[in-house]
Amino acid sequence: MICCLLFIAFSFSLCGIVFIALGEGNPGLIVAPYDSAGNKCGPQVHADGHDFLLPEHLDKDFKNAVAFPEHKFVMYANLEDLLAQSASGNAPDLKALKIYASACVKECPKKDTTPECETNADVADCADLTSSLIDYEEQFGTCLPSPTQAGEKLVKMKDAFM
Fold it and tell me: What is the pTM of this model?
């Protein structure tokens, strides 16, 4: 009997926490794209509808927040090098590839184009994001290699190393 009462009390507490979090917070920030320097790609709007860069928000929660409202997508550098090293059968050197390096871009690039981006400490030049092998497409706010083209290139690279 006491277990049922504890479970009911827990359930009500959990519902209360969820309603407070949804009312006071902004769950969209959890899934929003961020670059490797911690800048949010796309417009930054607080749950109350105000821009994060207003002074009251800067002093409170987001002292170093930077908004890139026109650069809505995040793109990672060196993904093609990672594919090539993976296809070779060797374990890729993630530290040397700086696979974490990313920047906010206006749109996902096509093959042999340099995207317009906002540089940061990890991506000093937008040319670092240039795709020489495949087109990129937006998937959940992130520019990722086109799945069909990436699969084809991976098979070709694997065959070349075998």
Answer: 0.64
